[in-house]
Amino acid sequence: MAAGGKGANQAVAAARLGADVTLIAKVGRDPFGEAAIAGFRREGICTDHIFIDETSATGVALITVDERGENQIAVASGANANFSLRDIEQCADVIRKSEFLLVQLEIPIETLECTTRIAAEAGVTVILDPAPAMFLPNEIIETADYLTPNETEAAQLTGVAITDETSARVAVERLLAAGPRNVIVKMGAAGALLATSSTTSLVPSTMVSAVDTTAAGDAFSGALAWSLGQGATAIDAVRLACLAGALSATRVGAQPSLPTGDDLRRFAAERAPGLRI
Predict the structure, then answer these.
(1) Least crowded by CB within 10 Å, which of 103, 105, 178, 209?
(2) Quick check: is 169 in a domain?
(3) Domain count, the chain
């Protein structure tokens, strides 16, 4: 067993790199919830806004990994599905005072929409990871400063099957038309396609022998938020995020695979010596 969950993983990924992180979430009153909160505290994450659900268990997942390191995940959402508008409204002030909001789709859509709206209206930079793949209304997409789908999620949102860089560029144009300021399509070993209002660039991935890709996308998201918070340009932040995702894929498990700042600096010195961290 290993700690996981998209929001939890991304919070840990950013915290391990040095970000000041507050996690807004919901767990059950059970051993898994207690272990999760204790783990967040060990990582230096503020847990003051983690709610305890008295009626549902903490969310869990069963993950299978094949010989190529690719995974398949079955999720029991538990308390995540009960993360309500009332809960998020109690956290409005902490959201407004943040520099970045990093959010995913493992909570109800109406709660997600309220969360991103609070952040956008306050001028908080919104990084929206539309995972797991599902339809999203434009009212949510247009609040994103950075929309970061993988190939499957981008195809779900656009109807464009992504098989190469050309098809990814078509999907990116459709996503930009929905209103986000920037789009980053994560393409695994092929790299990441970054699109802004003025340019589109393919950032190559770092080739590794993948052991387990679980949480590689979360390592990417956490590193992206941390790097942008350090003042990096979008292109350099994506380069760093690609490195973090690649390094994570060489390790087994979700949170156990997430790199620290020292891990990432050593890896970057070897694989991308010109990149500032």
Answers:
(1) 209
(2) yes
(3) 1
Q: Which CATH number goes with the domain that contains 130? A: 3.40.1190.20
The residues that bridge with 12 in the sheet, in sequence order, are none
The average confidence (pLDDT) of the chain is 95
* Closest among 226, 172, 225 to 201, alpha carbons compared: 172
Whose CA is closest to 148, among 262, 258, 237?
A: 237
Catalytic residues: 218
Contact in structure between 8 and 40 (CB atoms under 8 Å): yes
Count each helix (H run) and each strand (E run) in the chain, helices first.
11, 10
Q: Report yes or no: 129 and 123 within 8 Å, Cβ to Cβ.
A: no
Tens digits of residue pLDDT in 40-75: 999 999 999 999 999 999 999 998 989 888 888 899
SS3 letters across 169-226: HHHHHHHHHCCCCEEEEECHHHCEEEECCCCEEEECCCCCCCCCCCCHHHHHHHHHHH
pLDDT for position 274 = 82
